[in-house]
Amino acid sequence: MKILDRYIAKTLFKYSLSVMVILVGIFAFFKFLEEVDDIGRAGYTLIDALVYIGLTLPSIAYLLFSLIILLGVILSLGYLASNSELVIMQSMGISVIDITKSSLKISLVFALIMIIIGEFSAPVALDYAKKYRAEALGQKVVLVNQEGFWIKDKQNIIHIGRNVDGSQFKDITLIKLKSARELHSISHSQKADFDGRTISMHQSKQYLINQDDKFTNIDKQTLPQLFSKVAFDRQLLQSLKKEPKELSTWQLFKQISYLSDNRLSSAGYEVEFYTRLMKPVTLIAMIILSIPFVFGSLRDASLGKKIFLGLMLSLFFELFSRIGGVLSLRLDYNHFLIASIPTLVVLVFALILLKRKSVQ
After folding, report:
1. Average pLDDT, stretch 251-259?
2. In terms of domains, do 96 and 48 share one?
3. pLDDT band at 324 (very low <50, low <70, confident <90, very high)
4. Which are the contacts of 1, defined by CB distance < 8 A and separation ≥ 6?
5. Order of strands, edge to edge, in the sheet holding 149-153?
6. In terms of domains, do 128 and 174 share one?
7. CA-CA distances (angstroms) from residue 177 to 89, 183, 218, 344?
8. Has residue 253 been placed in a domain?
9. Which region holds residue 256: left if phi is over 0, alpha if psi is between -120 and 50, else beta?
10. Residue 28 host element (H or E)
C-alpha cells in the first residue's frame, strides 16, 4: 500500500497543482481587469497592479482549495482510469475503499498545506496588498488591520482601536495639530459615537499642549463629551471593514467573542466560522461522493465528462451551502447546524454510494 500511496500521491499532486494554476490564474486575470480602470490614477502603475494581484494570490488559492483538491482527485483518478490502471489495481485485490482511503490521506495532506497558507500567510499578504494599493493610489488611510486603523483628517490624526459598526468606536485617540510640527491637544476616550459628520467622544481625557520658546505646559482635563467634526464619512469606514471571509479562523473567533461579549450581532462571522470548520469534512464528503462516479465510468466516460461531473458536484454543493448560510442569517437559525447538516447529509449519501460500489 505504501507504493500505491506514493503513486497516487504523485499523480494527485500533479493534477491538483495544475488545477490550482489554472483556476487561480483565471481568478487573478478577472481581478486584474478590475484594476485596469485605476491604472494611471495618482501613482498607480501597471507594476503596482501586478504586485497587488500577486499579493492576493494566497487568499484566492485558499478560497478555492476545496474545489482544487476535488478536481485534482477526479482528474488524477480519471487519468488512472483512462490508462486502465484502476482496473489493474482492482484485479490485484486492491478495493475501491482502499483507493479511496489513499486518495483521502493524500488530499488531506494537501488540504493541510493550503490551510496553513490560508490561515497564516494569506491574511498578512492581503493586508499588505490593501495597504500597498492604497498608498499607490494616494489614499489617506495609512494603516488598516482587524483591530483598527489610523486616519489623517485635515489637521487631525485619529486612531480608532476598534470600529464596531461604523457608528460606534472603541479606544479612540484624537490628535489635533496647530501646524505640521506643533501639537494642539491629545484626547482619548474608550467610547465614541459617529453620526457621519461628527465624532462624539464620551468621558474623554484631554491634554492641552501650550508651547513657547522655553517651556511646554500641559493641561489635563476630563470632558463628559468632546465633539470633533471630520471630513470622512461612513462609506470610507465601511470600506475599511473586513469581510468575514478575509479574516483568519482565529480572528473570526476573536471577533465573534468580542461581539458576543458586547451583545452585538455576530451572525455573519459565525456562519463563516462554522463553514470554515466544516471545510475538511466537506472535502472528505465530496471526494467520497465523486470517486464512485469515476469507478462507474471506467469504460464509457471521457475525461471531459469527469471534469464536468466534478465541477457540477462542487458548484451545486457550494450553492447549497451559500443558500443555507443566507437562510440562517435571514431566519436566525442555528448557524452551526446550517453549516454542518448539508455536509453530513452529503457524507452519509456518499458513504452509502461508496459501500454499494465496493461490493459490486
Report:
1. 76
2. yes
3. low
4. 98, 102
5. 143-144, 149-153, 156-163, 168-179, 182-194, 198-211, 216-229
6. no
7. 76, 5, 15, 59
8. no
9. alpha
10. helix 2-36
> Considering the chain, what is the average pLDDT of its residues?
78
Which of 192, 214, 240 terminates a domain? The answer is 240
Q: How far are the Cα atoms of 36, 97, 348, 360 from residue 355, in angstroms, in the given order?
A: 51, 8, 11, 9
User: Do you know the residue count of the chain?
Assistant: 360
Are residues 108 and 163 both part of a single domain?
no
Pair 7, 123 in one domain:
yes
Do 259 and 267 contact (CB within 8 A), yes or no?
Answer: no
CATH number for the domain harbouring residue 233: 2.30.30
What is the Cα–Cα distance from 144 to 347, expressed in whole angstroms?
A: 40
Are 233 and 179 in contact, with CB atoms under 8 Å apart? no
167, three cell numbers: 457608528
**Total count of domains within the chain:** 2
Cα–Cα distances in Å, from 254 out to 82, 142, 243, 270? 48, 24, 14, 11
What is the helix (H) or strand (E) element at residue 250, kind and residue range?
Answer: helix 249-261
- The listed range with the strongest mean pLDDT (143-152, 287-296, 310-319) is 287-296
Res. 22 pLDDT band, cuts 50 70 90: very high
272: number of Cβ within 10 Å: 22
State how far the Cα of 68 lies from the Cα of 18, in Å rounded to an integer: 9
Residue with cell 494570490: 57
Q: Which amino acid is at 138?
A: G
Same domain, 23 and 97: yes
Strand-strand pairing, 143-144 and 182-194: unpaired
Residue numbers of the domain that contains 354: 2-137+278-358
Whether pTM > 0.90 for this model: the answer is no
3-state secondary structure of 156: strand
pLDDT higher than threshold 60 for residue 224: yes
Cell of 13: 499532486
**pLDDT class of 197 with cuts at 50, 70, 90:** confident
User: How many CA atoms, within 13 angstroms, populate the side-chain half-sphere of residue 52?
Assistant: 23
Distance from C-alpha of 255 to C-alpha of 247, rounded to nearest angstrom? 9
Alpha-carbon distance values, 25 to 70, 272, 283 (Å) = 18, 25, 22
Task: Write down the residue that cell numbers 490508462 correspond to.
Answer: 83
